[in-house]
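Hi,

Apologies if this is the wrong queue. I'm a grad student, and the batch job for Proteasome activator complex subunit 3 from Bactrocera dorsalis produced an output file that my downstream script rejects. I'm not sure whether the problem is my script or the file. Here is the sequence I used:
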Amino acid sequence: MPADTTTKQVQDYKDSLIKKAEQLIIQGFPEKIVELNELLATPMFSDRNFNEVHQDLNIPTPDPILVNNHAETADDGGDADQPAAKRPRTDHFVPGTKVMCLPTGSVPCNEPLCEMIKIVKPIIRKLVEDSNLLKMWISFLIPKIEDGNNFGVSVQEDTLAEIQAVESEAAAFFDQISRYFLSRAKVVSKVAKYPHIEDYRRAVVELDEKEYLSLWLVVCEVRNRYSSLHDIVIKNLEKLKKPRSSNADSLY
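Support response: The file is valid. Your script probably expects a header line. Output copied below for reference.
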């Protein structure tokens, strides 16, 4: 492929990206902010209380096992007169709870939270994509390095750093969702292995409530990040697009 053709294709890509970014700032961000505000006002996020995200684990509590652990008496041929430390030890085997499979089937995921996650994940992904687009847009607008008249360039660099921080934070929201499922699976496995211990069951409930609050907070934070990025870019749009003012006007 000729060098001129390659150069033109790269320039077309840059021009297209700049056009998309400016459209995103002027129209896309305000629309997204309104959309997220409407989502936060829906019953799923505004009216749902913690009790609505509780879910049965489908792990029954087995009946207690009674164990007779008394030492043999003299009538049974044992030596009841010997001290307890010297009496013959009688071992009793108590069946454990090795979990190969559950008698009631599998333990389901928390359905209300899964419904929320299906809605929240595309919102997070869109913020990552939009932040990446803005990051490249400002990178293309940064002029070549020169002495003096660099105030506008510093505005570009500060804005770029803010966008990169938003991008990293949005990517971390994905990790938060993955860690929830992993943490819940570990606690549920404890419930399956030790079904008599109520604290493990309570830990699952607390984890689900925490994730519900986290998902609501993620949507709020995404809305806030769109608002802050839109605000900082609109306020500094002139400096971002033309970081170095021309001195020609001052000659006349």
